[in-house]
Amino acid sequence: CGLLSSHEVSEIHRGLDIVAEEWSKEGGLALQPSDEDIHTANERRLTELIGAGIAGKLHTGRSRNDQVATDVRLWLRNQIDELQGDLKQLLSTTVARARHESHMLMPGYTHMQPAQPIRW
Q1: Please, which residues bridge with residue 59 across strands?
Q2: Other CB atoms within 10 A of residue 34 CB
Q3: What is the structure's pLDDT at 82?
Q4: How far apart (Å, rounded) are the C-alpha atoms in residues 101 and 105?
Q5: How far apart are the first and last CA of the chain?
Q6: Would you say 16 and 8 are in contact if contact means Cβ atoms under 8 Å apart?
Q7: Alpha-carbon gap, residue 12 to 18, rounded angstroms
Q8: Residue 34: helix, strand or coil by DSSP?
């Protein structure tokens, strides 16, 4: 769109990489009393790193609510990927155990009450 120069984009990416690295360290990013939330803390730190002129363009055309919605969507997408992997592992483990222990009897249940024994 031409709103940011390639230099500005590069500086924003560089600054955000540093901010992300600082968050990942023990103790995280040092919060200030003036930080309203994680977004203002990130913007403040980015401004300290790359200057107000460029950092101020971080959310050009986007409101704070847009940023929060984007953050939540990105986090959720990551969590879904992790859960999919966990679910695949659970299913493959269940199938492997069922094959290996198909001779085992266990109590069956119906309407939350014990019923006839069933195989694994």
Answers
A1: none
A2: 8
A3: 93
A4: 9
A5: 60
A6: no
A7: 10
A8: coil
pTM (global) more than 0.85: no
Distance (Å, rounded) from C-alpha 58 to C-alpha 12? 7
Task: Report pLDDT for 1.
Answer: 63
- 63 backbone dihedrals φ, ψ, rounded to 5°: -90, 170
Question: What is the Rg, in whole angstroms, of the alpha carbon atoms belonging to the chain?
Answer: 25
Q: For each successive 10 residues of the chain (120 residues), what is the average pLDDT?
A: 89 96 91 89 94 88 82 93 96 94 90 89
Positive or negative, the Cα torsion across 95, 97, 99, 103? Answer: negative
What is the pLDDT, as a whole number, of residue 97?
A: 92
Residue with tokens 């659970």: 90
Instruction: Count Cβ atoms below 10 Å from residue 9 Cβ, excluding itself.
Output: 13
CB-based contacts of 44, cutoff 8 Å, min separation 6: 32, 34, 35
Tell me the three-class secondary structure of 60-85, residue by residue.
CCCCHHHHHHHHHHHHHHHHHHHHHH
